[in-house]
Amino acid sequence: MSEKHLNLLTPSIGLGCMNLSHAYGSPVAEEEAIKALQEAFEMGYRHFDTATLYGGGKNELLVGKALKHLRKEFFLASKCGMAMVNGKKEINGRPENIRQQCEDSLKRLKTEYINLYYLHRKDPNVAIEESVGALNDLVKEGKIGAIGLSEVSADTLRSAHKEAPITALQSEYSLWTRNPEIATLEATKELGVTFVAFSPLARGYLTGAVKSAESLETGDIRLNMPRFNDDHYPKNLLLLNNFIEMAKEMGCTPAQLALAWVLHQGDHVVAIPGTRFANHMNDNLGSSDIKLSADQLSDLNDMINQNTISGARYNAAQQKEIDTEEF
Hints:
Layout: E1 15-16, H1 30-43, E2 47-49, H2 58-67, E3 75-80, E4 82-85, E5 88-91, H3 95-109, E6 114-119, H4 128-140, E7 144-150, H5 154-163, E8 166-172, H6 184-191, E9 194-198, H7 233-238, H8 240-250, H9 254-263, E10 269-271, H10 278-285, H11 294-303, H12 316-319
Parallel strand pairs: 1-2, 2-3, 3-6, 6-7, 7-8, 8-9, 9-10
Antiparallel strand pairs: 4-5
Helix pairs in contact: 1-2, 2-3, 3-4, 4-5, 5-6
């Protein structure tokens, strides 16, 4: 297998790098972030996921600085089509923008190629075939190894896949966000597309560490998400009691149990939990060794699902950015 086509499925746990620079409060200091990324590689991570958007490009810079000397030994994923422009988030899937963002990403990441390059969000003003066509040109030129899509519907995936082969679809998926079960989980399996679950720990909820919204730092993206507000989060916390007890009985952490559930949803499913802390990274890796019985899976499905969770996944503005199916 060539360097540009390293195996996305092995290991089944990758590292979402966003937390180091973006969305969850203050960015981690550069030296500390670089150390964390290098420790992640040393403990066994071989799939690192970043994006143009994260930290306005700073996250890609971190990954490049931390891992450039190991470039041939890991699977690198990044994303285009959503970026900070003049201080505001902009979704732009036009071919010329995709090409420019790729060139910029390659420089920041200090690499000649990106194994997997996602369209971060579908641009409602640009046909998906047009955006994917631009990505396919980058494949032909050797600048990216494969094409991915993020937070799109099964219909969009099928349309895109007719234009050029789609290697991966990335969407939020966890016990408390089941939207992929409507259509995309099955569509990816049918088309031979890897399903990459982001936020598989429900943005920290399933670890049991987030006791209230008041504990979150100013600027944390979760403060704008309905499930974490005062109307809904206390109700959601109550659902964790049996979940945490089950983890104790199994001799694993809540995070490991949550990740094991995700990995049991299909052989084509991988997860990319994000964290700032090396001990959590190591803990998350251990989830791939956990085997769940049919009864345990059934119990977990009954405990936490789209019907038991209180509150919407996104607020109205965030919801407009995605193309995924809704219950």
